Amino acid sequence: MHVHVLGNGKSGSGCRVTSRWWQRPFIDLMVANMGLRTSPDDPALDQLYVERLLHWVRESTLGRAVILACDDLYDETGRRFPGLSGLYVPNDYVFELSTRYHEFVPAASIHPARSDAVAELERCVEAGAVMLKLLPCVQVVECNRPAYRPFWQRMAQLNLPLLAHTGGEFSLPTHRRDLQSVETLRLPLECGVNVIAAHCGAPALPWDRNYFDQFDQMRKSFPNLYGDVSALSQITHLRTLDRLREDPRQILYGSDYPVLTTAVWSRMKGWIDQPAYQRIRSIRNPLEKKVQLTLALGFSDQILTDFWGLAPTPQASLDGQSDELTAS
Ligand SMILES: [Zn+2]
User: How many angstroms is it from 3 CA to the middle of ligand 1?
Assistant: First the structure.
């Protein structure tokens, strides 16, 4: 339930992406990890990205992947700042991809400060969205603003879960460090929304604050607060992973593809044995590598499916075949 699609929009997807020079080596690593042979300005990038992702889903043990839209940054008056959030993926793009390929399930992204926020929310649910994705510290979403209450209430009525980034962010620009906390999700929780704190408030870089304790306390008082294991495998995530392995309550599975997964730190901690390490290390498919590492760390395979207990049923069933698949 945490897979990114992205693109440069040069072939009409409507996507935008901006990166800074110092990110280049990391972007190159991710591109190599995905198995893409392309450049950021390639007009074919968007389609190549989708084809690659589709290939990985089809040859993995996963049935489907929830792909995420990404809205722009808005200020509290509803003024839009295109480009400031680093990534833009239109809702209609993830809907289109999910119609074309039954392996994809769409998650919308709507900044609640938009003047059309509630109308767009209703439109997206009608179009088959199974979740709403936001990055509060990147898109500047102060979820606890009283003005957003009707938006969260409508989400709760529509039974649409919120996946919100918490903790440090590495790939996109952080505009509001204070909005990395789990505390920032209190109002949607109080309105009855099922909220998934992505990464459980884990730090991305060594100097980031760790919000795991906050997450841990809040999951005890809010049965509708969940966390995900997406992206967690690097050295900065070890403390979080340690605590989650001890107490995996309300934890869901996500990968944060194309973010890299490594088994090296889990091996060094002694959490996995040498044969398991060798086996995971040799998996080329980034989606499958993350699944296998998660299971080897002792998480039950139930976390792979628990998401469907709190989301609307996706429109096409798992055994439903899309035209594209039948044709190919
Ligand atoms: Zn993510």
Answer: 7
Instruction: Find the mean pLDDT for residues 223-249.
Output: 96
pLDDT tens digit string along 282-310?
999 999 999 999 999 999 999 999 999 99
233 CA → ligand 1 middle, Å: 14
Contact 138, 162 (CB under 8 A): no
Distance 276 CA to ligand 1 centre (A): 26
Is residue 318 in some structural domain? no
Ligand 1 being an ion, which residues bring their Cβ within 5 A of it? Answer: 256
- 141 in Cβ contact with 111 (< 8 Å): yes
Tell me, what DSSP letter sits at residue 86?
S
Residues 135/140/145/151 CA torsion (nearest 10 deg):
-50
Distance 328 CA to ligand 1 centre (A): 30
49, 36 in Cβ contact below 8 A?
yes
Cα(4) to ligand 1 centroid in Å equals: 7
- Inter-residue contact 56 to 287 (CB < 8 Å): yes
What separation in Å is there between the alpha carbon of 297 and the centre of ligand 1? 21
Number of neighbouring beta carbons within 10 Å of residue 129: 29
Which residues lie across from 70 on neighbouring strands?
89
Domain that holds residue 224: 3-310
CATH number at residue 62: 3.20.20.140
Report whether 63 contacts 32 (CB < 8 A): no
CB neighbourhood size of 256 (10 A): 22
Q: Is 324 part of any domain?
A: no
- The string of pLDDT tens digits covering residues 261-274 is 999 999 999 999 99
pTM: 0.93
Residue 153 lies in a domain: yes
Asked if residue 319 belongs to a domain, the reply is: no
Structural domains in the chain (count): 1
- DSSP character string of 247-278: --TTEE----BTS---SHHHHHTTSS-HHHHH
